[in-house]
Amino acid sequence: MTAPPERDVLETLNWAPKLIFLVVLLALSAIAFWRRNWARAGGKIGRRSKTALPPFLPEGFSRVECREIVNFAPPEDARGYRNLKSYVREAAVHQPGLIHIFHVAGCKTLIEIPVAMPDYDRIDVTEALALLRELPDPRLVLRLQLSDIPSFLDPWSRKQIGRDDVFQLGASTNLRLVVLYLPDRALGPLLGTVLLHEWMHLLGFKHEWAVLRFHRANKIERLPPLPLPPITTLRFGAMANEAWADLGERLFGYDEALARETALAAPVHSVILWRRVEKTMRKVPKRLASTRHAELQARCAFMRAEVAPKARAARRRRWRRWWPGSARA
Asked: pLDDT, tens digit, for every residue of 195-232?
């Protein structure tokens, strides 16, 4: 006897999600294969190497390994490239090397430092860990890489912006990678600010719906223009994410006066971002809590007491403009 038609339909529907998953997986694999030689932040990590292991393991780390890496160095200039895709495919100079990968104890975060000695006063792995511990949630960073090579995007940025003094101090990707370019000790607190800015990008990548709400808040209030226009990227919504990271850097940075001034000037945007940061901080185990935890909690208390009421009032004013009858309530 043959199976009833109803059963055939149910079996087909049961296989539909598996077929969709298989098609998506094949498409993503094809894209990854096509882009395998494209330049990327953080280079390409290769095989393990036992030729240059460090003599000792610093405190705060569970283990260390040495791997091969192919770095992508910037070309002389970006002239002759039609768009960013052609630049990323063809412009970068491939430079092989070795890199130490330190595993942070108690979490999955890695700190990557080149084996070769630099020609500048680079911070060491313990200083990098101290910067990482200042973040609201250090676990959000999967890989923190210190790069002795400037960003391969610098020439393209100078071409797009039209200035010769433009260069990147940091970069981040949606794979939870943060790169600090030429992290010199002479930069001082600026390194912590750059790392916080890139951490805000990671938070935005993880919670894109919050960035969407943040962008929609432009209908209620306008943010001041960015110090520099963002680099043209291949990612959708780059403008909104850059504005998110720029505001977050000022709200949770090291300047208390700037944080208060920024929050009161843009209460709606600030409250959207603050709530996401506070929810993230609540999930951090005590052993991994930020070394700035008390300072950040005080910043959150200020947001709750003084900024949130201003944000609610701004939203009510917008609602009354759209619904005049509510003004009599």
From this structure: 999 999 999 999 999 999 999 999 889 888 887 666 65
Does residue 247 contact residue 266 with C-beta atoms inside 8 Å?
A: yes
| Residue 295, beta-bridge partner list | none
Q: Express the helix, strand and coil content of the chain in percent, nearest 5 each.
A: 50, 15, 35
- Neighbour count for residue 298 (Cβ, 10 Å): 12
pLDDT value at 127 more than 90: yes
Output the pTM of the full model. Answer: 0.86
Looking at the DSSP bridge assignments, the partners of residue 112 are: 101, 145
Vertex 173, ends 92 and 49: CA angle to 5°? 65
Query: Domain for residue 279, yes or no?
Result: yes
**146 SS3 class:** strand
- CATH code of 282's domain: 3.40.390
Q: Inter-axis angle of helices 267-282 and 189-206, to 10 degrees?
A: 90
**Domain-embedded: residue 250:** yes
101 bridge partner residues: 65, 112
| Distance between CA atoms of residues 71 and 92, nearest Å | 9
